[in-house]
């Protein structure tokens, strides 16, 4: 899987665009850092519309593998920072491509920071998760958005040509996630209330709902 990490950032995120070692050193209250990249689609889900036509915003959710911790729970792409990550931002872009196959084109904004503690080998760890709102190259037609449909892939017909929606090009890593879906704000909200189809942790759900509000602005 290609790990093209070419992306842009707005000026207000420059404080995160520093060497990862410097970023960590400036935040000694945390021992471990996790990142997430929330990807949204506004393509119409109506098969009679062109993929570029706007519809209700949906966020990419991945279902955790049954063999992993929190089996069956849903989340956005994300994971722990690695020593080879240049910055906290490249860590987020790396996690998105590793877990979804989508390539970040722009990191739009910081959605929020979650904090928690955990015990590992008798040591208490203080964890911070930084969730970013991101855009991906595939949504803009890069990396060959329009692909001739093949068996098992969702396709639509546009001006007589069969093309695949970029949203259906997500490729999960089977050892970590079993499947993916694009969820609406209402679906996420109902799931947090225990009335929906997705099992979502409270902190994750709050970040997702905040990201929906940011997308709507």
Automatic annotation (TrEMBL):
InterPro entries registered for this protein in UniProt: NUDIX_hydrolase-like_dom_sf, NUDIX_hydrolase_CS, NUDIX_hydrolase_dom
SUPFAM superfamilies reported for this sequence: Nudix
Record domain Nudix hydrolase: where: 30-206
GO molecular function terms noted in the UniProt entry: hydrolase activity
Keyword entries, A-Z: Hydrolase
Database matches in Gene3D superfamilies: Nucleoside Triphosphate Pyrophosphohydrolase
UniProt protein name: NUDIX hydrolase domain-like protein
């Amino acid at each position: 899987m290609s790990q093209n990490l070419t992306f842009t950032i707005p000026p207000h995120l420059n404080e995160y665009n520093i060497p990862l070692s410097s970023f960590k050193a400036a935040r000694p209250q945390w021992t471990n850092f996790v990142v997430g990249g929330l990807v949204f689609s506004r393509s119409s889900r109506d098969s009679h519309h062109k993929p570029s036509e706007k519809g209700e915003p949906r966020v990419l959710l991945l279902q955790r593998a049954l063999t992993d911790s929190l089996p069956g729970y849903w989340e956005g792409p994300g994971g722990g920072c690695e020593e080879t990550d240049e910055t906290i931002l490249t860590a987020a872009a790396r996690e998105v491509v590793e877990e979804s196959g989508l390539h970040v084109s722009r990191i739009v904004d910081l959605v929020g920071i979650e904090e928690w503690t955990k015990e590992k080998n008798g040591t208490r760890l203080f964890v911070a998760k930084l969730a970013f709102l991101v855009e991906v190259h595939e949504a803009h037609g890069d990396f060959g958005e329009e692909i001739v449909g093949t068996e098992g892939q969702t396709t639509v017909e546009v001006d007589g040509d069969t093309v695949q929606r970029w949203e259906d090009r997500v490729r999960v890593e089977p050892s970590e996630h079993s499947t993916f879906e694009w969820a609406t704000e209402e679906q996420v909200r109902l799931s947090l209330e225990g009335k929906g189809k997705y099992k979502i942790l409270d902190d994750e759900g709050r970040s997702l709902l905040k990201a929906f509000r940011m997308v709507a602005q």
